[in-house]
């Protein structure tokens, strides 16, 4: 379809519209602009009417947003750092925000395994990590996926080789 006649349904672009204002007309125009298109006023009116007729469900509050900030101790390259990790931050993001340098990482999704560490105290949640259960049970963690479960987490960075020896050879 021609770009100026492109009609977009918001529900098909959730990752684009989540952070935009939620009035139907503004959102549709913003979504279209972000997608590199323009919507005609007729298309906006049609979509706005459809959105107005759609039943709304209240979003459930995310528990992680209500979680309090926790101090995490990170041992890296012979130095010890304390970083504050709020309920939705993984330890890698908290460490980077705190200015810890030379941390190894790449994808930040738990796939590449370039941000290895070992939990020496406390407990972390590693939802989304590609580590096997037995490797996690031995205390290994990926900084990009690890979130503290409670106060008292101490985590030490390790080499990729140390992690891969456990993950692939054990």
TrEMBL record:
<keyword id="KW-0249">Electron transport</keyword>
<dbReference type="GO" id="GO:0009507">
    <property type="term" value="C:chloroplast"/>
</dbReference>
<dbReference type="GO" id="GO:0046872">
    <property type="term" value="F:metal ion binding"/>
</dbReference>
<keyword id="KW-0408">Iron</keyword>
<dbReference type="InterPro" id="IPR012675">
    <property type="entry name" value="Beta-grasp_dom_sf"/>
</dbReference>
<keyword id="KW-0001">2Fe-2S</keyword>
<dbReference type="InterPro" id="IPR036010">
    <property type="entry name" value="2Fe-2S_ferredoxin-like_sf"/>
</dbReference>
<protein>
    <recommendedName>
        <fullName>2Fe-2S ferredoxin-type domain-containing protein</fullName>
    </recommendedName>
</protein>
<comment type="similarity">
    <text>Belongs to the 2Fe2S plant-type ferredoxin family.</text>
</comment>
<feature type="domain" description="2Fe-2S ferredoxin-type">
    <location>
        <begin position="70"/>
        <end position="161"/>
    </location>
</feature>
<keyword id="KW-0411">Iron-sulfur</keyword>
<dbReference type="InterPro" id="IPR001041">
    <property type="entry name" value="2Fe-2S_ferredoxin-type"/>
</dbReference>
<keyword id="KW-0479">Metal-binding</keyword>
<dbReference type="Pfam" id="PF00111">
    <property type="entry name" value="Fer2"/>
</dbReference>
<keyword id="KW-0813">Transport</keyword>
<dbReference type="GO" id="GO:0051537">
    <property type="term" value="F:2 iron, 2 sulfur cluster binding"/>
</dbReference>
């Amino acid at each position: 379809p021609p770009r100026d006649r492109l009609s977009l349904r918001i529900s098909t672009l959730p990752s684009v519209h989540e952070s935009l204002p939620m009035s139907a007309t503004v959102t549709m125009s913003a979504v279209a602009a972000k997608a590199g298109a323009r919507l005609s006023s007729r298309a906006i009116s049609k979509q706005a009417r459809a959105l107005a007729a759609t039943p709304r469900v209240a979003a459930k509050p995310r528990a992680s947003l209500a979680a309090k900030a926790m101090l995490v101790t990170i041992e890296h390259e012979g130095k010890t750092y304390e970083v504050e990790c709020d309920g939705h931050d993984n330890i890698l993001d908290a460490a980077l925000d705190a200015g810890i340098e030379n941390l190894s990482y790449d994808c930040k999704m738990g796939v590449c395994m370039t941000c290895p560490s070992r939990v020496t105290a406390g407990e972390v949640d590693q939802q989304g990590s590609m580590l096997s259960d037995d490797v996690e049970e031995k205390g290994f963690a990926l900084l990009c996926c690890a979130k503290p479960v409670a106060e008292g987490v101490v985590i030490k960075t390790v080499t990729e080789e140390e992690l891969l020896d456990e993950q692939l050879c054990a």
